[in-house]
Design goal:
The protein is of the alpha+beta class. It is about 40% helix and about 10% strand. It has 2 domains: about 50 residues, no CATH class; about 90 residues, no CATH class.
Length: about 150
């Protein structure tokens, strides 16, 4: 009974039913993609493939040690005190997660990143993101007209 519980807690029964990595010579289970789906490679090979797509290295290697919104690029200056590196995240400026060009990266604290994602509508279909960008531009134009 205890062994069954441990297997359930740590997902050992899932590993037994997982497909194997498709890389030649690798016998590790494929990486779980969630929602009942599996990647075609184990986590090691999946990560290596993802890091090298488009000829660029892993985007997390571009993380700086400060929030780049200190310059006010999001219409306000960041005031978050960074205590640990985990408070910082790499953001895709254009909101397209598949665009791993290093010029498309900026480092934001988690607060600024959430704000930017919400305002720009970075999550969701491209049409939705365009809608939010137009809405933001219109609001900024109205605000500058009042001031």
């Amino acid at each position: 009974m205890a062994e069954d519980l441990i297997n359930t807690l740590f997902g050992l029964e899932i590993i037994d039913t997982a497909p194997r990595c498709r890389e030649i010579g690798c016998h590790n289970p494929a990486d779980n993609a969630g929602n009942g789906r599996w990647h075609t490679r184990c986590s090691k090979h999946h990560r290596a493939l993802y890091q090298n797509k488009n000829g660029y290295n892993d985007y997390k290697g571009h993380k700086k040690e400060y929030c780049e919104n200190l310059d006010g690029r999001l219409s306000f200056k960041c005031t978050t005190t960074i205590l640990i590196p985990d408070q910082l995240e790499v953001d895709h400026i254009d909101g397209d997660k598949s665009n791993d060009n290093p010029l498309n990266f900026q480092t934001l604290c988690s607060c600024c990143h959430r704000y930017k994602t919400k305002i720009n509508g970075d999550r969701g279909p491209l049409e939705k993101r365009r809608y939010y960008l137009e809405k933001l531009k219109k609001a900024l134009e109205e605000q500058s007209g009042i001031t």
